[in-house]
Each structure stands twice: as structure tokens, then as C-alpha cells.
Amino acid sequence: MAIPGNISVSSDYTVADQQRMTQAKRYFAWQSELSQAQLGRRVLEVGCGLGNFTERLLDRELVIGIDIDPNCIAHHRARFAQQPQVQSRVLDALDPAFLALRDERIDSIVCLNVLEHIEQDQTVLERMQQVLPSGGRVVLMIPAFMALYGPIDHHLGHYRRYTRQGLVATAARAGLRPRLLHYMNTVGFFGWWLNAKMKRQEQSSAQIATFDNYIVPVMAKLEGWVRPPFGQSLFAVLEKP
Question: Residue 194 sits in which domain range?
């Protein structure tokens, strides 16, 4: 059984789409815990959406959430209006203005389930590298294996799915080196493959709920002990030399 790769939400979604995917609370928490542990004190969130992951970073010194969707940023800004350490900006990572973020002394960038929506992914990674100091990190959650690509990916606006080797090569061209790379969600791998073969256009709420309530708690523990050789998603921490 699969679960939406874009739990944390990118700007390609409508607000309604993003709210629907918050059903998968346990899966989102699993992804979030992995990501939070790798981030520093001054964080840039690329593709912040409605701020579901931002909510988990309120203990940081600075969090800048950017998204290309003005509606998402309006929601994000209102949600964190009482949090002075959180900034909300309409900004495209491909815009030259992105490079001005160097002045914010960002030490880490998080981009959860967003990179696959960007055709020029290497260029975006290059921009991220340019705003980070030496030793700065880019934390990614991205869908894995093009063999799983199907109508749901197309509907979600995915240009691609990734492998470890492919991401390492793209990151190297962007001036980043891998610090941590592993697949996650082995059960979701088979569910996503089945969805692709059956040419399903979307996942049902029942499918998401069953996965989230009964499979995620067990799988998160098991994969915490032994990293799987494949999975529905790829978790990556890249570093600027």
C-alpha cells in the first residue's frame, strides 16, 4: 500500500489537496523526525506550502519558508504571525533573487517532496549550494525509482523519481556531496508499483488511512534498525564542502 510522496506538500498543490494529505499524520511525523535531526539553527524551507513542517521548527533561531504559490504563503504568514522567528516569502528558487538569501546566514535548507516537481532540479541544487556556507546542509525527501512512475506521479506534477546513484551524480554537478542517503518506506514501494501498473489516478482516503494507522508504526521501527535496500522514497542529506 502506498502513501502520497508529497506529504509535506509542494506549491504545485491546491490548498485543498494539501489539507487532504494531512490525513497521513504518522507518515508525516516519520519523515519530519528524520529531517529535523539534520537541520541547524537557521533554516530555509523550500516549498513550505501551508507550513505543516514549519510547525516543527519553531524552536529554531530562524525559519524562512518560501513557496511560489501566493495563496500558500498567505496561509503560512497568517499561521505563524505570532512567531517572529518565522518568515514567509513568495519566491522561486530559480529566481536570481534567491541568491540574496546568503545574507540571512542560512546553515541548512530543507526541501521535502518538492524537488521532483522542478524540471531544472540541478539548477535548484546549485542555487541552494550557493546560499550555504561551507559545511551547510541540504535535506531532501524525494520519490524513488522511475519504475514506480505512474498516473499518480503525473497528476501530482512529478518530473521524475530518483535513485541514490542518480541523486549523487546530480548533487556532485551542483557542488554538493552526500552525507547521508537511504531509502525508506519499503511497503509503500510495492503499493506505489501496484498503483502504477493499475494506472490509478489517485489514492483513496481509505488506502491512506490504513497505511498510516497500521503499517507506518511498525515499518518506522524496523527501518530505524535496518536501512532497506529500496523504498518508495529516498531521504538525503547533502553537504557543501
Answer: 15-239
d(CA 36, CA 91): 23
- Look at residue 7 and tell me if it is in a domain: no
- Output the domain CATH number for residue 158: 3.40.50.150
Where are the alpha helices (H) located in the chain, listed in sequence order? 15-20, 25-36, 70-79, 121-131, 151-156, 164-173, 186-197, 205-210, 216-225
In SS3 terms, 46-98 reads as: ECCCCCCCHHHHCCCCEEEEEECCHHHHHHHHHHCCCCCCEEEEECCCCCHHH
Q: 60 lies in a domain? A: yes
Domain count, the chain: 1
For residues 128 and 122, give the distance between their C-alpha atoms in angstroms, rounded to a whole number.
Answer: 10
| Residue 97, in any domain of the structure | yes
37-96 confidence digits (pLDDT tens): 999 999 999 999 999 999 999 999 999 999 999 999 999 999 999 999 999 999 999 999
On whether residue 103 sits in a domain, the answer given is yes
140: which strand partners?
111, 236
* pTM attached to this predicted model: 0.90
Collapsed DSSP state (helix, strand, coil) of residue 155: helix
SS3 219: helix
Sheet holding 62-67, edge to edge: 86-90, 62-67, 42-46, 108-112, 137-143, 233-239, 177-184
